[in-house]
Design a protein that fits this description.
By secondary structure, this protein is of the alpha+beta class. Helices cover 58% and strands 17% of the residues. The chain has helices spanning 9-12, 15-40, 51-59, 61-68, 70-76, 105-129, 134-159; strands spanning 2-7, 80-86, 93-99, 103-104, 166-169, 174-178. Keywords: Membrane, Transmembrane, Transmembrane helix.
């Protein structure tokens, strides 16, 4: 296979610019969705979970979002390598997932969209079902939208790739591969 294009978000986009974009999407999504839901439920009393429980609730979103990327790829039969490393700079555990063989473009796009759609639908339905916890589900929805910025940038790059290409992960990002002509 030939490498058609290599995608490295750290090279193409400044990491602080990506973080700023993600935070602005997160804040904008929270403000708009909270206004919509508060207009729908005018007179309700909110349940309080406390600051520590809320932070734990939001910190669980990161590994859940990462693991949900696996579900569509697992249905196709792609094997994954799991690595749990300690980050030296941030002193936090990192869950690294890599697939061992190239994956088709459409399957990879579906895998990138799955956590965003799944968590968004679940949080919106939960906000409608449990109005006293609506604030927390809107917060979950907005944090998930902020995480989805990175996925959507990858998807934007993949939509410009040829239809029958394959995606392979490497240390710096991903490679778009094309089959060699015979």
């Amino acid at each position: 296979m030939n490498c058609w294009k290599s995608i490295n978000l750290k090279k193409e986009y400044n990491p602080s610019r990506l973080m700023l974009l993600s935070m602005s999407v997160m804040i904008t999504t929270f403000v708009i969705s909270y206004l919509v839901f508060s207009l729908y439920y005018e007179k309700i009393s909110y349940a309080e979970l406390g600051l520590i429980n809320t932070l734990l609730f939001l910190l669980l979103l990161f590994p859940i979002h990462t693991i949900l990327h696996l579900i569509p790829l697992r249905f196709v039969g792609v094997r994954m390598q799991w690595n749990l490393k300690m980050s030296k700079k941030k002193r936090a555990p990192l869950l690294l997932l890599r697939f061992t063989k190239p994956v088709g473009r459409n399957f990879y796009i579906n895998a990138m969209l799955f956590p965003t759609l799944f968590i968004s639908v679940v949080s919106i339905i939960s906000a409608l079902t449990f109005p006293s916890f609506m604030l927390y589900f809107v917060l979950l929805f907005s944090f998930n939208a902020g995480l989805a910025v990175y996925d959507l940038i990858y998807i934007k790059q993949l939509l410009g790739a040829p239809r029958h290409c394959f995606i392979e992960q490497n240390k710096n990002g991903m490679d778009i591969l094309l089959k060699q002509p015979i």
